[in-house]
Design goal:
Helices cover about 65% and strands about 0% of the residues. The chain is mostly helical. Helix 1 runs antiparallel to helix 2.
């Protein structure tokens, strides 16, 4: 989803940039020098970042679907493991030798 949002933002930034370049070429620009460049670059780079985050998220989602690992860990287990590093619960499947 972020990939498509990033593509939309990058494409709209490109179109807005082209609009302001054309306005600058026909001398109809009223914004201060550098403002349109700054805004266009910020929008475009923000779109590129969203594309990257979206691709990374989709990749991680596929990896999580393919793995059989548990998807969540309860906070109770985290605190127990932090307080008692070598502790094994009664329900653990492997026993100490």
């Amino acid at each position: 989803m972020l990939t498509y949002l990033g593509l939309a933002i990058a494409l709209s930034a490109f179109m807005v940039g082209m609009y302001f370049v054309i306005r600058r070429l026909i001398h109809a620009e009223i914004a201060p020098t550098g403002f349109t460049t700054l805004v266009t670059l910020l929008l475009f780079l923000g779109g590129v970042q969203l594309i990257g985050i979206g691709v990374l998220g989709e990749y991680l989602g596929v990896c999580m679907k393919r793995s059989n690992a548990a998807r969540t860990i309860s906070s109770k287990r985290l605190w127990r493991d932090a307080a008692f590093p070598g502790h094994r619960s009664r329900n653990s499947k492997s026993s100490k030798p």
